[in-house]
Amino acid sequence: MAEIAGRPGQPALNDEKRQRLLELVRGRTAARPTDLAEDEVMVWPSLVVVEALSAVVFLILLLVVSVLVNAPLEEVQNPTVTPNPSKAPWYFLNLQELLLHMHPALAGVIVPTAALVLIAAIPFIDRSPLGVGILFTSAKGKMIVLFSTAFTIISEVGLILFDNFIGVTKSLQPIAPPFVYLQAIPIAVMVGFSAILALMVKVIFKPTRRELIIALFTGFVVTYFVLTIAGTSFRGPGMELFFPWNMPAPH
């Protein structure tokens, strides 16, 4: 084959012709490239088996906990008496926490809808195949997640404490229309803090588009958990703030 390829006046062999010539050699096969890198494995069975075993172990642990830990029911429901505080199920307490700080339509409809639309738009905004399947994309991505988590926790806790003890509504209610302190200011705060987070990540980490999206998505997830924990463990009668160990009994 080398003689044919190097013969004067003969056209150069392309990949297809070279592959055909290799197939004619007895006892030898052409090397086939693989799509897997050295540190990659197939989803089946490597990943699926691990996930199935994890699901079985989790189910067994859940059954054991449900047998050992009692979950007593409360007293019989009385429709004429509303408990104080009257809380939504824990998975909606983040929205109930938002209701304390802004207009009900904004907290219950507009903000959740906007969040879901933005999350659904992520695959259309970031179409790069680089880093697919790698947790946090890169080492820099992990640092961005930690930074975004710390920034969001500090910001959320600070805003909750500020609105509880100082209060935009309390301060502006006598002098401003409800639209200002129930809609305009909450929207400005949410957009403003998101922009501050994005700007700080850009300046500090010089992120790619995906890493910037990771920062904002981390902020969203941490916000979800902070609001849920605040509504579950720190809101007592009248939806006022209490430490969990000083929480009055519902009445």
Automatic annotation (TrEMBL):
Chain ranges of the Cytochrome b/b6 C-terminal region profile domain: 33-158
This enzyme's EC code(s): 1.10.2.2
Positions of transmembrane segments: 47-69, 98-122, 143-162, 182-205, 212-234
Membrane topology of the entry: Multi-pass membrane protein
Top EC class of this enzyme: oxidoreductase
Any Gene Ontology CC annotation: membrane
Gene name linked to the record: petD
Keywords for the protein's UniProt record, in alphabetical order: Electron transport, Heme, Iron, Membrane, Metal-binding, Oxidoreductase, Transmembrane, Transmembrane helix, Transport
InterPro entries: Cyt_b/b6_C, Cyt_b/b6_C_sf, Cytb/b6-like_sf
Family matches, as PROSITE patterns: CYTB_CTER
Coiled-coil spans in chain: none
Source organism superkingdom: Bacteria
GO MF terms held by the record: electron transfer activity; metal ion binding; oxidoreductase activity
Localization per record: Membrane
Name recorded for this polypeptide: Putative Cytochrome bc1 complex, cytochrome b6 subunit
Keyword Transcription recorded: no
Family annotation (Pfam families): Cytochrom_B_C
